[in-house]
Specification:
- The protein is of the alpha/beta class.
- The protein is built from four helices and seven strands, in the order αβαβαββαβββ.
Length: 144
């Protein structure tokens, strides 16, 4: 009986470890005072991402360092698997990006549209997630 319990405990631990290792790791750079950034981080965690946050003083400077055009800016910038994610991009769009692996800089949801993850609102507005190419050009990746 003890051997069976030990076996199941090991199976559970290995499954948990495998899930943790397979969860995409997202590094989020945000201002400490921004509450909607926290809502977006929660959204990512609820959708299986492993998220680390970094409170920084100059989000626009960090965005520029990562190559994201200023005109696509929002309140936070993130990195995941070599891609840059700007703003309140839905987790489903990031998962699709990581599955499709396009040769691009990343994704952006410019500004802070009401109804996007972390910006929940009783009056959501339509918005687009943009695929951002390395040269700064964009195309619509998803419509919400």
């Amino acid at each position: 009986m003890m051997l069976i319990r030990l076996f199941f405990a090991l199976v559970l631990l290995s499954a948990t470890g495998a899930f943790a290792q397979s969860a995409p790791r997202v590094e989020v750079y945000k201002n400490a005072a921004c509450s909607c950034c926290g809502g977006w981080v929660d959204h990512l965690r609820e959708n299986g991402f492993a998220v680390t946050t970094h409170d920084i003083d100059d989000v626009p400077a960090n965005r520029k360092t990562l190559g994201m055009p200023e005109e696509l800016g929002s309140c936070h910038t993130a990195k995941v698997d070599g891609y840059v994610i700007e703003g309140h991009v839905p987790a489903a769009d990031i998962k699709r990006l990581l599955k499709d692996k396009p040769k691009a800089l990343g994704l952006a949801v410019p500004s802070m549209p009401a109804g996007s993850p972390g910006m929940e609102s009783p009056r959501p507005v339509p918005y687009d997630t943009l695929l951002v190419e390395r040269n700064g050009s964009t195309s619509v990746y998803a419509r919400h």
